[in-house]
Design brief:
With about 110 residues, the protein is an alpha/beta fold. The protein contains 4 helices and 5 strands; from the N terminus they run ββαβααββα. A 5-stranded mixed β-sheet has the order 1-2-3-4-5.
């Protein structure tokens, strides 16, 4: 698992493993990055479905309860097919934009 930390944001990458192993490894490493906004880059996975993204639902909920952003990045799944609780972006830049917008919302107590 690769962590790319920039300020209070951590981008998580993984190559060469299954999605389930990736989620398991992310859960194990979560303590190290729980205080950051987390961006999970899923571009290394060739095939993803909306059901695959549900594997991240629990960690996403827990992280957002701590007033931190959790964003998945892939262009292989349509936004309409995932629950609203999962933040999804097609590019890393759009993931960063989501984090900025959510920070503003938290600051304004929206």
């Amino acid at each position: 698992m690769i962590f790319d930390k920039e300020g209070n944001r951590t981008i998580v990458y993984q190559e060469g493993i299954s999605l389930l192993v990736f989620v398991e490894n992310l859960n194990k490493a979560y303590e190290k990055i729980k205080n950051d906004h987390i961006v999970v880059n899923l571009f290394s996975f060739d095939k993803l479905t909306s059901n695959d993204l549900l594997e991240f639902l629990e960690i996403s909920r827990a992280h957002k309860k701590m007033k931190k952003s959790f964003v998945l990045v892939t262009d292989k799944v349509d936004y309409e097919d995932v629950p609203e609780e999962i933040s999804l972006a097609p590019t890393l830049q759009e993931a960063m934009d989501i984090i900025e917008m959510e920070d503003i919302e938290r600051d304004l107590d929206l």
